[in-house]
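Why do we care about 3D structure at all? Because function follows from shape, and shape follows, mostly, from sequence. That is the central idea of this module. The next example makes it concrete: a single protein chain, its amino acid sequence, and then its structure expressed as tokens.
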Amino acid sequence: MTLSMTGFGKSEFTIKNFHVNIEIRSLNSKFLDLSVKLPNIFKELDYPVRKLLKEKLKRGKVELLIHYEKINLTHKSFLNKDKIIGYHNDLKEISEKLNYSADKDLIGYVLQLPDIIQHSKETLDEKSSSRVINSIEKACNKLIDFRTKEGLALEKELVQYLKNISKNLIAITAYEEDRLTKVKDKLLKAIDESKLKSLVDEKRLEQELIYYSERLDVTEEKVRLNEHCNHFKEALKEEESGKKLGFITQEMGREINTLGSKANNINIQKLVVNMKDDLEKIKEQVLNIL
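And the structure:
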């Protein structure tokens, strides 16, 4: 089944005091190129997230974005009583030794010292971490669905280009026989104009025609090109066939170029140009196949 490398998937969920949005985008790339952007609270999930993306998405330029919003905010800060008492006692002891009366001001000084206010650290428990991973997997599945739909459209388009190439390949046959006849007429005309007909060896002329016949023969190229087209159609049904399809198009290009070099006929050249045009369109689309 043909899968595109282009896709988009998203999911969202709520855990504790967070509403989380997950978005995954993918574009075509020769390899798996991951860009994972996680908020600090999710940093510990970096490795399992990358492992999941690698298993699910295989190849492409993949970007994962996670955004979250705090909801049902509660008081997350508190005074460090032990620190306050410790600071107060130390300052009071120093004040007494210096004969400095500042009992009323001590608490104000203490509150300006470091580590008086503590903030609770936001962390994920095992259950919440599992929810995050499951939601990322859900977004991956949606992206794969997107890739599948794109792949079906790509496959339909590629099959049409293959039909065009096959149609032009068949059309070449109608012009093949005329080429040798024209070569023979051209040789005889040159001999007549040179007034060398009496000196021409018929066997030698026949050998020259056989030589041209072999040079102009495109039977092998036609057979190979047709086989490559059939191979391409079969590969479209396979999973992760993008690189394989790229190799097949290279072989198709070689056969079409050889047909052009052996054409020796304006109509065949036009058909070859049409085939090259369709092949370039195929190559462009194959770059986006997984």
